[in-house]
Every structure is written in structure tokens, then in C-alpha cells.
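Subject: design request, 163 residues
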């Protein structure tokens, strides 16, 4: 099976899972008198996944290659495994950080792990991206939408200023 065929097959799997998720999340309340309901975030995520899956189905791109003309298989799977391991580690950090460190610290650390080590961008880009994600999440979700984010000292200080 070509890489392109594998992409389409994986995309059909994502589309099916996203449609089931969207169908199930539509049973939950989207919005209540006090803000977003239990179904708001699942509906949003499932909807984004459906749209992305449809985009990939329509325009899947081309098989992975480098400037040298090497295919993904020729470059080996060591890099792919390394990147996957870093993403898996970031999920563990996300779970532990949400329980102990609060939203902002966790968002910054997870973004730095992914952007710096998995995607191999500069430290400045990784830290900048992490801080931007944490700020957007804290302001948009924590303050404006009043979503209960994991709280640490940074979140409590921010909320005391804006609430």
C-alpha cells in the first residue's frame, strides 16, 4: 500500500471516530445560562476533527520526501520513533502537570517539550509558543468562558486580578 493510500485509510478512521464523537457529544448541553455546557468542548473538538479529516480526504498532499529525494522509509524509522516517544512523554507530563502544577506551567512545559524536542524548533520559538498557548488558554477558557482549568499559583493570581 502506498503512503498516500495509508493516509486516506487513516483519515477515514479519523473521520469515522470524529463523526461518532460529534454524534455522541451532540447529546450534551452546548451552552447554559452560566456559560459553556458539558458538550461545548467535545463538540468543538469533534467538529474540528471532522473538518480536518475532510480536508485531508480532498487534498491529502504527497508522500513524504526530503530535498535529497529520499522517502520516509529510506530515512528510517528511528526519527519517527523518537518523535512518537517525545509526544508520549508530553502526554504523561500533561496528565501529571494538570494534577499538580496548574494550567499555565503545564501548558508551557508541554509546548516546550513538543516544539523544542519533537519538532526541533529553537528555544525562543518553543518558549514563545508555550507562553502564547498558556495565555490564550487562560484568558479565553479560564476567564472569558469560565472553564475550570487546573489551578496553581499563577492561575489564582490571574483570577484575583480579573474576577
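Subject: RE: design request

Done. Sequence follows.
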Amino acid at each position: 500500500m502506498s503512503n498516500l493510500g495509508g493516509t486516506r485509510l487513516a483519515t477515514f478512521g479519523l473521520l469515522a471516530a470524529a463523526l461518532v464523537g460529534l454524534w455522541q457529544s451532540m447529546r450534551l448541553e452546548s451552552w447554559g445560562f452560566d456559560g459553556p455546557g458539558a458538550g461545548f468542548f467535545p463538540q468543538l473538538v469533534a467538529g474540528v476533527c471532522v473538518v480536518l479529516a475532510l480536508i485531508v480526504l480532498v487534498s491529502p498532499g504527497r508522500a513524504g520526501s526530503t530535498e535529497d529525494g529520499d522517502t520516509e522509509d529510506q530515512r528510517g524509522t528511528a526519527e519517527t520513533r523518537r518523535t512518537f516517544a517525545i509526544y508520549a512523554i508530553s502526554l504523561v507530563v500533561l496528565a501529571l502537570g494538570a494534577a499538580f502544577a496548574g494550567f499555565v506551567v503545564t501548558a508551557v512545559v508541554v509546548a516546550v517539550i513538543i516544539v523544542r524536542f519533537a519538532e526541533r524548533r529553537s528555544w525562543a520559538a518553543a518558549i514563545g509558543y508555550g507562553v502564547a498557548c498558556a495565555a490564550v488558554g487562560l484568558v479565553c477558557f479560564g476567564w472569558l468562558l469560565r472553564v475550570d482549568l487546573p489551578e496553581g499559583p499563577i492561575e489564582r493570581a490571574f483570577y484575583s486580578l480579573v474576577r
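Helices lie at 3-25, 40-58, 72-75, 78-100, 103-118, 123-144, 153-162.
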